[in-house]
Amino acid sequence: MRFDEAYSGNVFINSHPSYEESSVVLYGMPMDWTVSYRPGSRFGPARIREVSIGLEEYSPYVDRELQEVKYYDAGDIPLPFGNPQRSIVLIEEYIDTLLADGKIPLGMGGEHLVSWPVMKAMAKKYPDLAIIHMDAHTDLREEYEGEPLSHSTPIRKIAEHIGPNNVYSFGIRSGMKEEFQWAKDNGMHISKFEVLEPLKEILPTLAGRPVYVTIDIDVLDPAHAPGTGTVDCGGITSKELLASIHAIAQSNIEVVGCDLVEVAPIYDHSEQTANTASKLIREMILGWM
Amino acid sequence: MRFDEAYSGNVFINSHPSYEESSVVLYGMPMDWTVSYRPGSRFGPARIREVSIGLEEYSPYVDRELQEVKYYDAGDIPLPFGNPQRSIVLIEEYIDTLLADGKIPLGMGGEHLVSWPVMKAMAKKYPDLAIIHMDAHTDLREEYEGEPLSHSTPIRKIAEHIGPNNVYSFGIRSGMKEEFQWAKDNGMHISKFEVLEPLKEILPTLAGRPVYVTIDIDVLDPAHAPGTGTVDCGGITSKELLASIHAIAQSNIEVVGCDLVEVAPIYDHSEQTANTASKLIREMILGWM
Amino acid sequence: MRFDEAYSGNVFINSHPSYEESSVVLYGMPMDWTVSYRPGSRFGPARIREVSIGLEEYSPYVDRELQEVKYYDAGDIPLPFGNPQRSIVLIEEYIDTLLADGKIPLGMGGEHLVSWPVMKAMAKKYPDLAIIHMDAHTDLREEYEGEPLSHSTPIRKIAEHIGPNNVYSFGIRSGMKEEFQWAKDNGMHISKFEVLEPLKEILPTLAGRPVYVTIDIDVLDPAHAPGTGTVDCGGITSKELLASIHAIAQSNIEVVGCDLVEVAPIYDHSEQTANTASKLIREMILGWM
Amino acid sequence: MRFDEAYSGNVFINSHPSYEESSVVLYGMPMDWTVSYRPGSRFGPARIREVSIGLEEYSPYVDRELQEVKYYDAGDIPLPFGNPQRSIVLIEEYIDTLLADGKIPLGMGGEHLVSWPVMKAMAKKYPDLAIIHMDAHTDLREEYEGEPLSHSTPIRKIAEHIGPNNVYSFGIRSGMKEEFQWAKDNGMHISKFEVLEPLKEILPTLAGRPVYVTIDIDVLDPAHAPGTGTVDCGGITSKELLASIHAIAQSNIEVVGCDLVEVAPIYDHSEQTANTASKLIREMILGWM
Amino acid sequence: MRFDEAYSGNVFINSHPSYEESSVVLYGMPMDWTVSYRPGSRFGPARIREVSIGLEEYSPYVDRELQEVKYYDAGDIPLPFGNPQRSIVLIEEYIDTLLADGKIPLGMGGEHLVSWPVMKAMAKKYPDLAIIHMDAHTDLREEYEGEPLSHSTPIRKIAEHIGPNNVYSFGIRSGMKEEFQWAKDNGMHISKFEVLEPLKEILPTLAGRPVYVTIDIDVLDPAHAPGTGTVDCGGITSKELLASIHAIAQSNIEVVGCDLVEVAPIYDHSEQTANTASKLIREMILGWM
Amino acid sequence: MRFDEAYSGNVFINSHPSYEESSVVLYGMPMDWTVSYRPGSRFGPARIREVSIGLEEYSPYVDRELQEVKYYDAGDIPLPFGNPQRSIVLIEEYIDTLLADGKIPLGMGGEHLVSWPVMKAMAKKYPDLAIIHMDAHTDLREEYEGEPLSHSTPIRKIAEHIGPNNVYSFGIRSGMKEEFQWAKDNGMHISKFEVLEPLKEILPTLAGRPVYVTIDIDVLDPAHAPGTGTVDCGGITSKELLASIHAIAQSNIEVVGCDLVEVAPIYDHSEQTANTASKLIREMILGWM
């Protein structure tokens, strides 16, 4: 005798009750212990679920309803506070299991470092994997003040792991000079400031390939996503980000996994960031899966 | 010995003291009891008035000053808490009186359901009435979880009342599949996502007709209007909404009434939403009346 | 393969998975449509559950752990937005079912009107029912601006239903002169301003009787509960409210049901009100059940 | 055809429409330009009026209703931004007029400096005037960083004007060593930390005298009044401040004028400070007038 | 020549420790006492410094690092609260000293009136000075409610001082009719609504001239800068403002001084406005100096 | 020995410029990576310093001025994000240096785990060390979800290190049953709920001993300290905490070091928590040093 969860929002809206029957698995990675500036993204996945109750199940963008895709919201991976080493191992193990079960992973962060073990697991299954990365920041550091496990390093790690020429970053407007130089020297693609137009140029070159898409919510301008750790002006609009998701939907790449990270609800009293994230996830599900 | 109300803002700035001498009547409809998500728009009209003190009386957009229009701020219609049936009756009766007195109604919501009795009253006076509707949401439901009186239904009600082909919606980015289908099947105009460009195409076709314009503040992107019940990313900018108001001002339609609804101040700590609403109302007065 | 819900908090901490095996049922009543001042308590139950993750399971006050009581969190009763009549019927029906199943109801509001149908249902099962009511407000109005179903009326309704001499109000510091007079004329107990001391005097007179306890969070001073619709200074501390709960625990009355209402999270950025409510509920469970 | 101002709150609740017929005049002094720390009290009077809609008109403390006193809310005195010299002159002139008309002034600040011209005007009419001052701060500076007109100086000014032995400060917990020393050397009464108990001792010694009472909201602990410029922990509760107001009500002094200052709404998202201020003003009206 | 740290006085990221060796001096002008609407910009400089820790030192826009420019953060000029006359004198004297020492001044407000004494000092050294002014407001009033020293007057003052034809305003969307008329009648340039495109047209005409650039953060739309005194919708994006700074960087004008004013942190809970301001200052340093 | 100003690094009011000449050293420990609930205390030290500008330098409680004590604010210890192991080593090394230099350490957290390495260093110098601990939480866990380095463990660690009978906890109102049992079994003192009265009883028994005092700001009720990670109602008032500090000041114990931890500014929009912390530190300096 459990009511429909009208307001409590423990699972993403319209989540399917059966893991076995679902093709997509949604999960949270509530970790924020390596961030160098403002923490709080550990509460991102829970708040995104909570506000998803405000979503319509239909997308007028792609003319599809959530009922048409079976996705299972697995909740948050329990991660040990303050221990990035073990957290990363636990995430990778979880993704290994999902992939072994034939599921498409759709993750919610948490800080961006959580994407590193996910992408590493993906690369085991898809040797030809490419990465599409939308972010305000390069995330190409080797280490941050001596720590190799930092929210500033995940793209560097995956680029070194699968080859920099398989990584495509868009919307970048912040980083160290050395990071941009490293990308240039190693054949990695970086589109500065813009997402939609350069993405449209790149997508045909990736046709047929398995692609993992990782979106840091701070690729949006702070006007559109104030609820994140590092707000950096000069970003894109939510309209452009939606259009970019739809451009991928219309392309010939195969999205084999994806995530949306760095929503930190405490910095956004209006909750627009979490609401935006929940809509982006709806479009990712309906557009890509 | 009453001071000018330097800060208390009980009336919209420059409101004329005489109802009789005014051609326009501004009034609040502080109702939010049928909203399905976040309530609070009952406080919209009061806050819009309060912050209107920060407005200049001159519009550099239309080169006109508030002194050139006589409008009377009648305060808020007293509505019974939690009783939508009686609230709707009271609103309709009030508009009937305004129209009998030859006034142009300019309403402030409150939730969008308040527009239904206003539009119904307008249609009695103007049999040839057309509706211009700017909103993130279709508002075309027949009922919401069994309730025919809901903030999701006003456009459906007026469309059925005056004929769907007389209703023009702009900026719509959210709704049920059935709502979009109903509009299509019944000849109602819906412009998805955009406002200004499609509006410019429609306006000439309405030349000479009496038009009621209803604006839900959530047609704006949450970046521009975080203080509303349902924030939905991918919306238009305040610049585009201002331009849309000015496009109507330059057209040959006759605006016989209008409203601006769904400002919910509590969700916007910076008060930008109420400030924006007060400027939009200034432009509606100076552009349309 | 669903994780423990480390952060998503869809159920109150340590809730038992089986309705059948539980003796207590926790449920939300997410209704706020008749409030006369600031709405938002519809989100109270969800937020109380969400923050309950921060609670210890052990109470050093009563030296007991949550594991010692089987309670089932049933979620929120789905209530029709803006329709108090139907909402009240639905709540009463639900409580009837709980009582028929031999459960002890523990409700979370929502506005205070939700307690009326609960208490009415309780009175059917317990003809000798007494009410202990802690609140800043009398809630003894016959109607509010013409509406008999209002958040200002529930105590009047139950007092007329079971007899005013069976109702004991504590902590009252706000009401109309007529309300206080009505209580006096009809033999209803009202302790103004204080809770703990007068409660200790009354409790022995109720020994052995079935008692329903209804707590409006605004009995607390706004310093201790800013997140509520009507903040009214001069209230009691959370320490005194905890001590009052423990005084009941040590008495010889039989608590046959209870609720905690009027938590409105949006007005409390620090979330202390929801956190306090979750601790009060823990103490109500451990002290009374 | 102007509605009752259900939400717009332009006047304090139940304000009488006629200046002539009223014995008390309520007015705002929206000035905050000399504050040394956090500005914003200029918006205090407007917000206090706005939230007064949430008040009951009856006081269960003194068993009286607002209808029993005729008070006129004159709005805010228009004060020139950034010009304390002229502001002070304008305030004094206004109070002169009120006193000439036989009115009792009840002022709302604004920063505490606004009390200086009021008290100066009072002293002209009442040569035997005494001052009761409740505050966290001594406000006894001669000047603040070279400025003799500062929010840190009003009590010094009035003490020098009417004699320090006629000034009684309560609740003081902050000031320079020199300020405390000056008070001691000059026979001025300062009760450190406490209000109610020392006040009860002083009141009989003032029996029959005309007294002006000036209350800085920061005499309350920040828990009870976060919305003020200078929050300073260790203050009294709102319960104690209410009791202090009622102690004065029961004494034999004649309150010939009073004010409540330093409410700065922007620092208090829950609006408890403005709500508390509005209740304090109700009790000042019902207890003293 | 380091000021006492009146408002916390941390330093802007990468500030050089030596005044003597630096070519640029960064300083705060924490004054907000003449603002007519919402105060709080006195805390702007301190918060901009505090959040500058979140900046990268490299600009991918101009491919330069902060280490390449020697700038000294002198802290905040100590200004007397509530005394605009003396504040203005102190600011002018300070700029005189900076210019005598051969430094380029880079100021942070504070309200816009602080730019007047700076520009006056600049004009003494550079008789051929031109002003580029980006703002939502004309700031061309002669006085504001009788006060010639007001945040609404600085551009009028400098225009009268160096000749209106040497002043170029961009992005203006608010002002009195008389202000626009005065500009027109006196040959002063005003670009309404837009910044980037008209700026690109004007810049070549200023080639070789010494120019002071004054930016009011409210030239940005409130979506991009909610933390300011007067939010006025219809503004430009942070992307456009960055592009405008870079257009100046690529032009042949000589920026001999500049400021960024009106950041009021209290109105922006997410701190995006202060973060944006700190990035704009980084680009001003790297692009212009 | 001034650290880089990792988080803005302004200085506490009246800090002495010379490390060598100072007897007390104030330092921040901006670490929050092991907290299990709400992070953000890393920004505590910087905000406490920032708001200390609002403090008077004189304490009317102990009749002393800050000028009478030489203390040096060393800024924040740079700690590696997400690495508690290294952070703890760095803190202990720093305290070793301070003690070798004959300084009294006064630390600001950061999460409570930072106190562990400080107390460990103290115990090396003072073999007879006792600990006075004020907190809402026992902090006596052996580990937290497998992590021995957690904000829930510092008191357990020091108790095991110096013997549980040398540790005195006050104000405790939250913990696991096992933690209370462990304390009881091992002769450690825990005063539940209260601080002042039990402290007064314990202090004479510690006469002449070197004592380290560690205060978790959450010993205060959330009404008095909403800006902390774990708000737990039923706590003491700021008045009682001040009185407790003064009781220690009047006792015969020797305070050889102390800290105040867990201020997390983001959860307290009014900034009362940081203001309270800054006043507590003033009283600790003036009362104990």
Keyword list:
EC 3.5.3.11 (chains A, B, C, D, E, F), 8 helices, 18% strand, alpha/beta, 289 residues, 8-stranded parallel beta sheet, hydrolase (chains A, B, C, D, E, F), homohexamer
Task: Walk me through this protein's architecture.
The structure is a homohexamer of 289-residue chains. The first copy, chain A, is an alpha/beta fold and 289 residues long. Chain A has helices spanning 44-51, 84-100, 115-125, 154-162, 177-185, 196-202, 238-250, 272-288, and strands at residues 24-29, 58-59, 64-65, 71-76, 104-109, 130-134, 167-172, 189-192, 210-216, 254-261. In chain A, the strands form two sheets. In chain A, strands 4-1-5-10-9-6-7-8 form an eight-stranded parallel β-sheet, with helices on both faces. In chain A, strands 2-3 form a two-stranded antiparallel ribbon. Chains in contact: A-B, A-C, A-E, A-F, B-C, B-D, B-E, C-D, C-F, D-E, D-F, E-F. The A-C interface holds A 1-11, 19, 27-28, 30, 42-43, 45-46, 49-50, 74-79, 97, 269 and C 1-11, 19, 27-28, 30, 42-43, 45-46, 49-50, 74-79, 97, 269.
Find the structural class of chain A using helix and strand composition.
Answer: alpha/beta
Ends apart, CA distance between termini of chain A: 33 Å
Using a beta-carbon cutoff below 8 angstroms, give the protein chain pair with the largest interface and the number of residues from each chain: A-C, 29 and 29 residues
From N to C, what is the helix and strand string of chain A? EHEEEHEHEHEHEHEHEH
Strand count, sense and closure of the main sheet of chain A? 8 strands, parallel
Global mean pLDDT of chain A = 93
Task: Indicate the radius of gyration of chain A in whole angstroms.
Answer: 17 Å
In helices, the fraction of residues of chain A equals 25-40%
- Return residue spans of chain A where pLDDT drops below 50 for at least 5 consecutive residues: 1-9
**In what order do the strands lie side by side in the largest sheet of chain A?**
4-1-5-10-9-6-7-8
Number of strands of chain A: 10
| Estimated share of beta-strand residues of chain A | 15-25%
Shape of chain A: globular
Pfam family, one (chains A, B, C, D, E, F): Arginase
GO molecular function, one term (chains A, B, C, D, E, F): agmatinase activity
EC number (chains A, B, C, D, E, F): 3.5.3.11
Family (chains A, B, C, D, E, F): Belongs to the arginase family. Agmatinase subfamily.
